[in-house]
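quick q for whoever's on today - can somebody do inverse folding on this one?? i tried earlier but teh output was garbage lol. tokens:
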């Protein structure tokens, strides 16, 4: 039986906390794109989520039957939360599907990335081509999609996060060879991340460059995200043991908390429940975080008491 990797649980627990914190900052700061804490969080947290997802999903052999399981875990909750939100708002449209980034895009994107991963692995066997070569070629092709405007159904998100997922899978496959190299250089990786992420921008070129080009934006963001993934997964191994509450969050609650907290925040925005914390911004962020996370955790627990509702909303 495989030993449970507690450092992975700890990292996922930390990441879901950062996701909620980042969304609280985003909803309280009108100029959140220039908020330094927001920029540091967003520079690596979703790439690392995808990286870890690829890492834990690695198998020596993949079966198409697993797509059905992932559909239940990811797509059904994605649709269910969208329908619930539309019902509360009294507005029925297809925006949640054509533009999944307006909702629980992570569930939708993670499902399709998992499907692509399985298909690519099967192709490498059928074509008798090294899997890593197939992965590399596919990443280049998918990243090219980012330069195509007006894409629907979240294709641009799939294209952006696929390389991080595949790199996580590769790291797991060659962990005995790669981890010693990464761990030996974790301090250098950490310094690089801290420096590069300081200049990171969500939709613009890094702050020290005046040139505004898509290639530069994507390239810089990719480098920062990749270095962040390597640094944090290396750093996490120093804490490969249960950490109170953090391990529990990361061992099975992350997708559920992610789904519920998004819904809670959307309700707050929809009903215009706002507070003016302009004079005490970070106190406001802390209160909002505690409120959103606490309510989300409570709803998550309540949903878990019903087997059928839990299946539909949490994929469990």
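ok took a stab at it. sequence:
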């Amino acid at each position: 039986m495989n030993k449970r990797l507690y450092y992975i649980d700890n990292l996922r627990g930390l990441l879901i906390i950062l996701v909620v914190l980042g969304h609280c900052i985003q909803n309280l700061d009108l100029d959140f794109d220039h908020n330094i804490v927001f920029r540091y969080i967003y520079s690596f947290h979703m790439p690392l989520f995808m990286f870890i997802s690829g890492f834990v999903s690695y198998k020596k052999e993949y079966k198409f039957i697993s797509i059905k399981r992932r559909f239940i875990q990811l797509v059904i909750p994605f649709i269910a939360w969208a329908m619930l939100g539309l019902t509360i708002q009294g507005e029925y449209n297809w925006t949640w599907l054509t533009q999944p980034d307006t909702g629980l895009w992570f569930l939708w994107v993670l499902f399709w990335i998992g499907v692509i991963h399985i298909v690519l692995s099967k192709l490498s066997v059928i074509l008798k081509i090294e899997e890593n070569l197939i992965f590399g070629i596919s990443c280049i092709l998918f990243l090219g999609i980012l330069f195509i405007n007006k894409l629907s159904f979240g294709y641009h998100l799939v294209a952006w996060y696929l390389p991080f997922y595949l790199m996580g899978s590769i790291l797991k496959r060659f962990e005995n060879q790669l981890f010693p190299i990464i761990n030996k250089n974790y301090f250098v990786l950490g310094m690089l991340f801290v420096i590069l992420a300081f200049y990171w921008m969500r939709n613009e070129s890094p702050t020290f460059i005046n040139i505004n080009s898509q290639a530069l934006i994507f390239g810089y963001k990719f480098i920062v995200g990749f270095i962040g993934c390597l640094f944090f997964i290396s750093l996490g191994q120093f804490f490969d043991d249960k950490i109170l509450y953090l391990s529990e969050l990361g061992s099975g609650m992350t997708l559920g908390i992610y789904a519920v907290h998004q819904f809670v925040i959307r309700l707050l925005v929809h009903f215009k429940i706002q507070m003016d914390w302009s004079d005490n911004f970070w106190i406001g962020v802390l209160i909002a975080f505690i409120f959103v996370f606490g309510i989300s955790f409570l709803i998550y627990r309540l949903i878990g008491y019903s087997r059928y509702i839990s299946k539909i909303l949490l994929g469990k």
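fwiw The chain is about 75% helix and 0% strand. also The two ends are 23 Å apart (CA to CA). so keep that in mind when u check it
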